[in-house]
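Need residues for this backbone.
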C-alpha cells in the first residue's frame, strides 16, 4: 500500500486537472454499426470531464478523411484572446470495432483511445477515453459533443445517464463555454 501511495504522489502531476479513479478502466459498449464517414465533420464540445489540455472556450473538433485513409483531427479553442489549434490523426484500430478509434497529436506518442459510445451523426455524440496506469488507477476523459453549439438539457442528461450506467463517473463533468464564438 505504501508503494501505491508513493506511486500516486509521483504520478499526480501528470494527471493534474484530470479525473482519475482506482482500478482499471471500465469497458463500456461502443456504437454498433458505427460509420466513420457519417461521423466526419464539425463537432462542438458541449460538456466534458476536466482535461488539462482543454482550458479555453468555443472548443470544437473537425474530422476529415485524408488520402491515406486516416482521419485528420483538427481541434481548436479560444484562449487568452486568441484561437489555439492542434492537428492530430485518428485511426480505426480494429476493423471489427470501428467505433474504437485511436487518436494521436504527435508522431512521438502512441494512439490514445477515442471510443464513440453513441452518436446519431446529426445532433449529438458521446465519446470516452481511458488510460490505465499500471492497472492501479485510470485516467478518464469523456465528452458530450453536438453538431450545434448547444444541445437540449434532456439530451445532455440522457448522455450522462448512459455514461453512468456504463460505470463512467461524470459527476465532475462541466459545460464548455460556447457563448460569443461565432463573432
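Answer:
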Amino acid at each position: 500500500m505504501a508503494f501505491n501511495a508513493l506511486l500516486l504522489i509521483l504520478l499526480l502531476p501528470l494527471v493534474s486537472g484530470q479525473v482519475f479513479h482506482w482500478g482499471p478502466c471500465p469497458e463500456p459498449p461502443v456504437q454498433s454499426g458505427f460509420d466513420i464517414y457519417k461521423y466526419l465533420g464539425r463537432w462542438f464540445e458541449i460538456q466534458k470531464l476536466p482535461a488539462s489540455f482543454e482550458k479555453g472556450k468555443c472548443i470544437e473538433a473537425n474530422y476529415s478523411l485524408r488520402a491515406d485513409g486516416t482521419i485528420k483531427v483538427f481541434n481548436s479553442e479560444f484562449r487568452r484572446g486568441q484561437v489555439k489549434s492542434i492537428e492530430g490523426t485518428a485511426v480505426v484500430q480494429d476493423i471489427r470495432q470501428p467505433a474504437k478509434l485511436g487518436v494521436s497529436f504527435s508522431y512521438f506518442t502512441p494512439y490514445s483511445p477515442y471510443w464513440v459510445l453513441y452518436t446519431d451523426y446529426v445532433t449529438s455524440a458521446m465519446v470516452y477515453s481511458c488510460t490505465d496506469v499500471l492497472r492501479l488507477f485510470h485516467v478518464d476523459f469523456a465528452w458530450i459533443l453536438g453538431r450545434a453549439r448547444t444541445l437540449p438539457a434532456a439530451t445532455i442528461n440522457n448522455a450522462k445517464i448512459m455514461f453512468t450506467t456504463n460505470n463512467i463517473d461524470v459527476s465532475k463533468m462541466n459545460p464548455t463555454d460556447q457563448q460569443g464564438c461565432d463573432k
